[in-house]
Design a protein that fits this description.
There is one protein chain. The protein is mainly beta. It has one domain: Bacterial OB-fold (OB fold (Dihydrolipoamide Acetyltransferase, E2P)). It is built from 1 helix and 6 strands. It has a 5-stranded mixed barrel with strand order 2-3-4-6-5. Strand 2 and strand 3 form a beta hairpin. It is globular and about 35 Å long. It starts with 7 loop residues before the first strand and ends with a strand.
Length: about 100
Amino acid sequence: MWLSGCTEKFGQSVDSNAPRATVIKIITDQSLSSKVINIEGTILTECEAGCWFFLKDDTGHILVDLAPSHFTIPSKVGKKALVTGTVSREKDDVKVIAKAVEIH
């Protein structure tokens, strides 16, 4: 649940109908591959160009890639984020291809 306040939006609109997932669920649940999910957490580290970041929640951290969706975000390390994206799995490499990011 987000507190009211300033929200910055990047990419498309967040899909409020997409199921919520945690980092550990995304990493361990094979059935989420290629599915659209919502994940929220804190931005841990970020590419200087703003084309990817690592998102951390209580269960771990995961790469969020913005480049395939052709948008970037300014530096937001330490900020809370809500991401709508598609789970991408290539062998042991699991990441979220973001479609939308909201920063709070």
